[in-house]
User: What shape does this take?
Amino acid sequence: MNRQALSPDVLVADLSYRNLKDHLIESTGLAYYLDKDSELAEKVAKRLEALNMSGCSAYLALLKNGQAGEAELDELVVDLTIGETYFFRHEEQFDALRRTILPDIIRRNASRRQIRIWSAGCATGAEAYSLSILLRREFAGQIAGWDVSIVGTDINRKFLAQAREGHFGDWALRGTGEDIKSDCFLRSARTWRIRDEYREGIALQYHNLVKHPYPSLLHNLAAFDLILCRNVMIYFSHEVIRDCVNRFWSSLVDGGWLLVGHAEFNPEFFRAFHTINAPGTVLLARTGESPKQPVYPVDTWTPESATPAAASWQPPSFPDLPLLLRQPPTAPAGTKDGPGDSLTARIRALADHAQWEEAETLCETLIGKDSLNPVGHFYQALVLEQMGRRQEAETALNRAIYLDRDFVLAHYHKGLLLEKGEDIAGAARSFRNVLALLRPMAPDRRFAEADGISAADLAELAQMQLEVLEEP
Assistant: This one.
């Protein structure tokens, strides 16, 4: 092929380049490339050469071609995204985690003995593993016997596969002390491998912050005590950032915390959060107000007031969440009226706020109304998993599948559950079942029980999860 035909300048001049660029930014949220045509065209040129294509029009047609297009977009994303990360990156934020955020979470969660953290845009996993090390080394006595769950998500499946392997080079540990290296890693000839005890409770899954739903009980992305999304939104447009921030707010429990990168903090975007100035960083805490409320006053956080004993900041109190039982939210579009619909809506609402015991009670009520309805057992499985009762959750999923062999959502969630339990073969089998069941369905079919996700999007998620599991 003529390499001149694939030069960035030639591609930018292609009449179809603008449509291709718009499609890529819409699919990934990477507005970073809005004014960087040469960089984007250079990366596109690499894929055209690999595919033996010569123009933007044919490449755009491929990207829009169902699963083949999703697979190709995934290949391009490897070049479009930046996976440079290292352990304990941004020391000031980890100091704030150590001295204020985690002690606050542990204090507030003492009764339910559970911590849920989301590392959004986790790349190769250094952030998620750093959090695990911090919790299990410095707070071991306080969280002994607790259910600690850290969910790492990314749009780049190759990064996720590397994260799952848990092997890191010297560069990724450049800011890590020798004591942590010796205690938390196994040294090989060329890499450091994270020890198994620090992998416990970490789930790594494919997720696109722009396209896929959150909060979402189905996807294990709800009711978090802490969300970290650092140096991810700098690539997004202002409109996408606002949407992500509002959805992060909804994915946190009341009093939950959000950490973003230095360059990402803009008071205009975070007006729903209580803003706290800490040494070298800004901390964001969810209050019970609507995301459309005015900016909150900025507090000042000093080293003297930052010790756990000082309880530097107390989240405000809000009406008890059981009020949701009297005023259930509107069911998602596409939900058919039925005797269990109001119950499932209330189960989702309670789960979004980490009210697991109340949600589990409602699941029992739903099953009591109709024990042969697989949806009741499905929701019970989702709630039981969040309560740390994973064996019971798997049993409930198996019961839902027994009652309806074609219950695609139950197969999908079983794959996530088995993946978290390191049953890679079983998880892969479940995701293959999902793809087989979705194949004859219309791509635009919506699943009310899964926040209205389409069959096409669910197929994409299952395919990406499968590819991550099977990545060599």
Observations:
- The radius of gyration is 23 Å.
- Residues 290-340 have pLDDT under 50 and may be disordered.
